[in-house]
Amino acid sequence: MLKKFALSACMAFGLVAATGAQAAPVQTALSIVIDGSGSISSGDFEVQRDAYATVFADASVLKADGSVVINVVQFSSNAQIEQTAIRINNEADRATLIASINAMTQLNGSTAIGDGINLGRSDMDAFLAGLPAAEIATNFSKLIDVSTDAGNNAGASPVVATNDAVGGGYSAVNCLAVGAGNCSFMTGDGQVFSANSFADLQPVLENKVRTELGTIPVPATAALLGLGLIALGAVGRRRLAA
């Protein structure tokens, strides 16, 4: 009997190992829309690119458990997909995303924010349409994340693109303004984040992405308070047992 139980347990373990851990349902679809226009110097574009790669490499910011789908679009006079929508199920998926970001080369040209929003949305929606309903969380949200150092001056209207996205089920189009970046196209519940320059971008970007993905770290004081309460509870239980 014991041998049969052990054999069954080993078979079950082997099945789990072969198939991998079950992914969490998708909670957030995040479309990253990055400015690659000519108003950004080549050095600043590299700083921007490196900031995105660094933020998404942090496992405390982006969980690799299947709960997030991300795509990356770069816009200038037009827009192009840098990373088509990918569900971050594991570290290999994270590495794919970061490699795509690191491979970006600046488009240089005008600033077509609306085209970037529209392309990010269409690519994301095409991916999500292929997911079974059972893999979507009840608190699921779709977001578009724009970063820019200027105002729109080419392509589709970003106001119309934003309204269309919100009307199409997106919770918000958020905007990170770098320097003189203009986020006046935003409507609805979109949030504006600001960085004085590209040198100041990374911490602002991290805060923005944490806000969008719900991975805001617990402040140190709150964490210490929680540990203190746990310790007090343990002491109280010991006293009762005595």
Q: What is the overall silhouette?
A: globular
Alpha-carbon Rg, integer: 22 Å
**What is the straight-line distance between the termini?**
42 Å
Strand segment count: 6
Write down the overall mean pLDDT. Answer: 88
Spatial strand arrangement across the major sheet: 3-2-1-4-5-6
Give the gist of this structure.
With 242 residues, this protein is α/β, with parallel strands linked by helices. It is 44% helix and 21% strand. The chain has a six-stranded mixed beta sheet, sandwiched between helices.
Defining key terms:
about 240 residues, globular, 6 strands, six-stranded mixed β-sheet, alpha/beta, about 45% helix, Rossmann fold, single chain, disordered N terminus
Describe this structure in words.
This protein has one domain (26-222): von Willebrand factor, type A domain (Rossmann fold, 3-Layer(aba) Sandwich). It is 44% helix and 21% strand. The chain is built from seven helices and six strands, in the order H-E-H-E-E-H-H-E-H-E-E-H-H. It has helices at 2-19, 42-57, 91-102, 113-128, 158-167, 201-213, 220-241; strands at 26-35, 68-75, 79-87, 136-148, 172-178, 192-195. The chain has a six-stranded mixed sheet, sandwiched between helices. Helix 2 (42-57) packs antiparallel against helix 3. It is globular and about 70 Å long. InterPro entries: DUF1194 (IPR010607), VWF_A (IPR002035), vWFA_dom_sf (IPR036465).
Write the layout of secondary structure elements.
Layout: H1 2-19, E1 26-35, H2 42-57, E2 68-75, E3 79-87, H3 91-102, H4 113-128, E4 136-148, H5 158-167, E5 172-178, E6 192-195, H6 201-213, H7 220-241
Parallel strand pairs: 1-2, 1-4, 4-5, 5-6
Antiparallel strand pairs: 2-3
